[in-house]
Design goal:
This protein is α/β, with parallel strands linked by helices. It has 2 domains: 3-175, Rossmann fold; 188-278, Pantoate-beta-alanine ligase, C-terminal domain (Pantoate--beta-alanine Ligase, Chain: A,domain 2). The chain is 38% helix and 19% strand. The protein is globular and about 55 Å long. The model has no long low-confidence stretch (mean pLDDT 97). The structure holds pantoate. Residues 29-31, 60, 63, 130, 133-134, 152, 155 line the site of pantoate.
């Protein structure tokens, strides 16, 4: 049976035992409401060489804005625990808000550069909340590897940045986005959509593919992104927060396909905010 621990002391005790036995440890941080995408992160940790994988489930209040979905974010610990156990997870760390942010908590990790723009503009404070909680989780578990989905591509870039900047001794692994049969990126927030919205949602991914085709054909980023925004609005999305093409590593803006790039988009569909991204590289030769 997979155990559940709720205190940092218990988490550290378990990880220390594995370390004494010479085992390598992986961490998969999540906010729960798990789907196959999350379980693929557990598999990625195992493939990396982790002998034991710890998953954390913590709906982190500091990364939600005042008008966002913290209160209604789905919470289903029993179901999540069963899924994690089935995926080969060794331990679930599920702390309370009071354990993570006790009275007097006063520290924030802020990252500039990669955290600015894109979701950083639309969700002020979001990446500081993510960076702070992930720093805590990494220092609490002290894993050899931590795995994050490419679905949240800017988040992954932010995490890579502060892990390097703060010399946190952990390998950060990005894992590819898992998609539904119609191309929609798996997300815990997909559950918010009505049937009609769900039918429209895969348009986001199709529009990104069209931008990728346009880039490969030599199109200019600004024109392609404006067309993509118009297509999303015509399909029923709105507002469109952004459609942008960025350097795949630094997230600096790019105008043509002269290096590996990432096409990123965020748009609302009713009350649900969807994000997605795909990578494109110049063809070799
Ligand atoms: O991607 C998520 O689910 C969250 O942002 C994370 C990394 C678990 C931090 O709360």
């Amino acid at each position: 049976m997979m155990d559940i621990v709720r205190s940092v002391a218990d988490l550290r005790g378990r990880v220390a035992g594995w370390r004494r036995a010479g085992l390598r440890v992986g961490l998969v941080p999540t906010m729960g409401a798990l789907h196959r995408g999350h379980l693929s992160l557990v598999a990625a940790a195992r493939e990396w060489g982790a002998d034991r994988v710890v998953a954390s489930v913590f709906v982190n209040p500091t990364q939600f804005g005042p008008n966002e979905d913290f209160a209604r974010y789905p919470r289903q610990e029993e179901q999540d625990a069963a899924l994690l156990e089935g995926a080969g997870c060794a331990l679930l760390f599920s702390p309370t808000v009071a354990a993570m942010y006790p009275d007097g908590f006063a520290t924030t990790v802020t990252v500039s550069g990669v955290a600015d723009g894109l979701c950083g503009t639309v969700r002020p404070g979001h990446f500081a909340g993510v960076a702070t909680v992930v720093t805590k989780l990494l220092l609490q578990a002290l894993p050899d590897v931590a795995v994050f989905g490419e679905k949240d591509y800017q988040q992954l870039a932010v995490i890579r940045r502060f892990v390097r900047d703060l010399d946190i001794p952990v390998a950060v692994l990005g894992a590819p986005t898992l998609r539904e049969a119609d191309g929609l990126a798996m997300s815990s927030r997909n559950a918010y959509m009505t049937a009609e919205q769900r039918a429209v949602a895969p348009t986001l991914q199709r529009v990104l593919q069209l931008v990728a085709d346009g880039l490969r054909a030599g199109g200019a980023a600004s024109v392609l992104c404006a067309q993509a925004t118009a297509s999303l609005l015509a399909a029923g999305f709105g507002p469109v927060d952004y459609v942008e093409i960025r350097d795949a590593d630094t997230l600096a803006p790019v105008e043509t396909l002269d290096r590996p790039v990432r096409i990123l988009a965020a748009a609302r569909l009713g009350a649900t905010r969807l994000i997605d991204n795909i990578g494109v590289s110049p063809s070799a030769g």
